[in-house]
Amino acid sequence: MTSPKPAAKPSSAKRFDGEKILLALAAPVLAVVLSVAICSVLLATSGKNPFDAWNVMITYGTKSDGQVAILNRSTTYYLAAAAAAFGFRMNLFNIGVEGQYKVAALFAAFVGSQVDLPSFIQIPLLLVTAMLVGGLYASIAGLLKVFRGVSEVIATIMLNAIAVAIVGLLLVPGIFAPEKSGSSNAIQTAPVSESSHFFAIDTDGGPLYGFLFIAILVGVAFQFTLNRTRFGFDLRATGRSESAATASGVNVKRMVVTSMVVSGALAGLIGLPELLQNSYNFGQSFQAGLGFLGISVALLGRNSPIGMAFAAVLFAFLDSTGSQLPLQGGFPFEIVPVMQGTIVICVVVAYELVRRYGLKRQQQKVGAELAAQAAAAAEKKEVSA
Amino acid sequence: MSTATAARAKAPGAPAKKRKMTWPVVLLLIAGALVLFSAVGMITDNHSLTSSGQVTAALSAAVPIGMAGLGGLWSERAGVVNIGLEGMMVAGTFCGAWGGYLVNPWFGLVAGMIGGALGGLLHAVITVTFGVDHIVSGVGVNLLIPGICAYVNRIYYQDYISAGAGANQSPPADPLPYITIPGLSSGLKDIEAHHWFLVSDVAGVVGGLVTNISVVVLLAGALIVVSYFALWRTVFGLRLRSCGENPTAAESLGVNVYKYKYLAVITSGAFAGLGGAYLSLVAAHFYKDGQTNGRGFIGLAAMIFGNWMPGGLAMGAGLFGFTDSLQLRDPESVHVLILVVAIAMVLLAAWHLYRRKYTATVITLVVSAGLFVWYFTTDEVQRPLIVATPYVITLVVLSLASQRLRPPKADGQIYRKGQGK
Lengths: 385, 421
What we know:
heterodimer, A: about 375 residues, mainly alpha, B: about 425 residues, two-stranded antiparallel ribbon, about 70% helix, globular
């Protein structure tokens, strides 16, 4: 052990920081590499050439229409991830994003089809409707947790199932769907009014959803709220240690309900890019499963706004380019969920391992410093003696 | 059967408030329910709720839910929350159909259990060895396993189209045997057809229990009883449960916590896998993408409904199975059920009045009045409402009884070897 020099301290701290960043990046990169390797083996054993498959995906991903498709999809994924992550940041598992966005999208579609105001009122009205419905639906789980001690995981799982029933109950001709919905068998709401259509940017690869900006706005607001406001501090403190937060004067019950409502309100936005930019109605074939996908994206991005953006783009890349696989070369699309699953599992394990390694490093460093200090003190004593 | 086990769940600190559910009380309640059902059957001239067909359907719908719940019970008793049951069930459906088609359905059952157990092993590795949050791991398992099954299904069966495989479906397997007790079943059928008060209803229920019962249903019932004895009457079970209550104390007494957690989660996966294999071998004869349809989650709810006890879990699974099977029956008989519940609520209100709980009396009466109004103003019940009923009931039960529910103390907590030092 060398004796500590005051001048050397900052540089060593800096080096440790660099290592920390490296470690934080290592986990997701490792997870993706491992997942590609596993899926390559899976493809190879089923008699397909994995490199051809990756080639198809990358080719589509570098085309402009592919890129627009990826960005449009990642808009939805990012909103879903933000909704889940807001709860995760305070250890609140909102598994119910799935149900919240379905109910919210249904009500937004109904309001959009019934009301026809100028765009600058209509669109905020629909946004608020969706967020309100999503937040209200999520508040059931929050209130049950606070007042009756029901685990939010179980409550939201029940609420997901109830949401499906609510949609089934309301989405019938005469209630939310028009009495005679033409010749098609599919039941859906009437199309939303012209003024509800959200703006899109025309690019070479097709229309780029204007909702991308809403997603970016949500990300910025997320970051600001958590890191620059008292509410965000309280929220993170509650997430780290509930008892410590209570001791420092945080009203944990109110925090639980508030963050559940915010999480649900964000979840309300998930269905809107599809509703206001693409399908213009809510039907039985409205995309399902976005809530659970959002949870995965949030886990991959470690609940941080920047991390989730990368994760959302990665998942959107896999889903969008994966849809090209059956068309070009007859690869099964089902390899994409396998990849997403392995990425999520690898990444959560890798994060945990990295966390433990970092903790160990820190302990070693502190131990070494303490030992060196003790040694220096002993030396001093000897000299003075 | 194992309902008596519910008596063992004592709420600490409030023993006086809670009466024990003893055998006579349970039997009395069942008898009362039967009288109520037959009375309503007489009034409305609709006996379908206690018909043998209804009972058989409810029982077969309850099995996959009960098995998933039993899986949840094993895992959570050892302190590992298992949201991944759904994924493990999917593994069971796939492996079950695969084994059932290639070898025979009996082998399919075993294969389904092994498939589910592998899913459990994955969950155990992630949560126990690597110490990842249990919910996070479960979400990952639910994402990965259905993906793998859909992929393998697509690749593996593409040469089996002539055998009946579809794009997302496996070729059909042979059926497993059904059991009917010959003399008893037909005799009960005759009695049931007469619509005598109470007698026919009892005959209907018993008839449902002895007619066309799949062997897997019997196996599932046996497994619930065996699980009770294994977990509450053996040294092994005591140690396993101690890992879910206080792993530090368990370790200090020389229990290998990791080993027991692994065993519990793998067993949990095997039971979920059996529930899945039931779906792909008995309920249908093939694997299909999305076949489980959230039953893993429902199983978890049934277990919590049953207060982390096998008897309660069986009741929860029965409730979910009953409402699940109602979906397939005519809307009229479901409409009759409203009247049954409304009358039951009046009786409950009388009981509350007798116990001098006046607010509870009023609330129950209001609910009951609402149900009566609903019954007399409508002719049938929309199907989505029936689907939602068990979930709503679970939420209500949880919100009313969550103070009395007692999950394992260290449930969901991450435990690392030697952390108690």
